[in-house]
């Protein structure tokens, strides 16, 4: 429990050393910690309001990606024909630089949350699809053979064997996608947002307020950490057997 705070203190110490003692980094690029703290304490309500907007967009886009990604992954897992037809297309969509789609999304969806949510979806749905399809097609052979020996139906096989065995892999995809959802929200706010931390960074950078921009950047990081560990906690409650049957040694 003490290691994360210790790591944070080390990072703050290095930051202070580089900006306040050695002054090897220009303040316009990275202000000292005190300046960033002062920028936050000057208008905390403003920063927290934008943090709330970004959090809502991140969670909403992630939830949409989870539902669609799991359903698409399930379809690919149960139908080899669909897997062969659409996997190349999914890979191509994932390979497209999402920031290049920003102007198109603004033109099609306008300003506001719609293009932001779409950017979140595009950025983080592929790991969920991949992990779901991989998990559902990687059922341990001994469990599958046991279910067949008990004359389990296809639905029983899916509900009691394939899905539980795939859940750890699905959560791996979710944990990969969660930070990507935050990145997608910020990218969307850069190009189409009317609020949020990404929008705040653009505003602060436009007037040369590096301290405010760094407050927003730090808040993005803190938000991502909290959402990620909320997902980890959810995994521990949903899959208690995983920790009991696996080891890191």
UniProtKB/TrEMBL annotation:
It comes from Streptomyces incanus. It comes from the Bacteria. It is found in: Cell membrane. Residues 51-235 form the ABC transmembrane type-1 domain. This is ABC transporter permease. The keyword rRNA processing does not apply. The chain crosses the membrane at residues 59-82, 89-111, 117-144, 165-191, 211-233. It is a multi-pass membrane protein. Its main location: membrane. InterPro entries: MetI-like, MetI-like_sf. Keywords: Cell membrane, Membrane, Transmembrane, Transmembrane helix, Transport. Belongs to the binding-protein-dependent transport system permease family. The keyword Transferase does not apply.
